[in-house]
Amino acid sequence: MRSLLPEAADQVDLVEAYSRDVRPPGGRPFVRLNMISTLDGAIALDGRAGQISGPADRSLFFVLRSLADVVLVGAGTVRAENYGPVKLPEDVQQARVGRGQSPLPRLAVVTQRVDLDFSSRLFAGASQRPVVIAPGGADPRALAEARRFADVLATGDKEVDLPLALAGLGSQGARHILCEGGPTLNGSLVAASLADEFCLTLSLKLVVGTGAGVVRGWLENHNALPSGQPVAGLMELGLVHVLEDDGFLFLRLRNA
Description:
By secondary structure, this protein is of the alpha/beta class. The chain folds into 2 domains: 31-68 and 179-226 and 234-256, Dihydrofolate Reductase, subunit A, CATH 3.40.430.10; 93-175, Dihydrofolate Reductase, subunit A (3-Layer(aba) Sandwich). Helices cover 28% and strands 23% of the residues. It contains 9 helices and 10 strands. A 10-stranded mixed β-sheet has the order 1-9-10-8-2-7-3-4-5-6, sandwiched between helices. Strand 5 (131-134), helix 6 and strand 6 form a beta-alpha-beta unit. The two termini are 26 Å apart.
């Protein structure tokens, strides 16, 4: 992988490049969003991101996971992408331990209705219990079932209170959280001013059709924005770097 900006370089150490200037803000963990998008804004094809991805993007995916204390993901993405337990090579696990981290990051699933398949490999095959983040007012039977297979972090009443959820993860030792989407969870973090950094892979492809963008879902789901209308307001981002490999562009953007 080569660097285009801020300086040109033929080879980039991804761990070093994405570890630089990662500082938790006061009172909560550092939150990094990671998504892939085609040039026309599609984040998946037939519901899966794999068809617009490639080897370079998947390499970065695992590097970003290797740096995080918690991998945060929405329940819809867990179902669509058939999530399993987080796995990393033995040498990467040893490097994490050397940095004072656990061998593997914990996986935390945000769900409003606790409609998860607890017989899936995400829960049945995990070496450490995932975290289920759900509203405290969710169905008590669903919460009780979740507690059989995961550590439950209940925040909010009818909807998850994300600031409290991040604070709860922070109280458990998380300093660096990687959010892997989907767009509804991304949008909720952005709307609550909880996103510190955005890593966007641009796949130089076009998808004919429509679909959710990288952060659009939250506004539409909460009736704050009619579908197809522009967002009222801007989130200012500063460019940290641009990398390139195999026709993919990798943008690291910082919340300004």
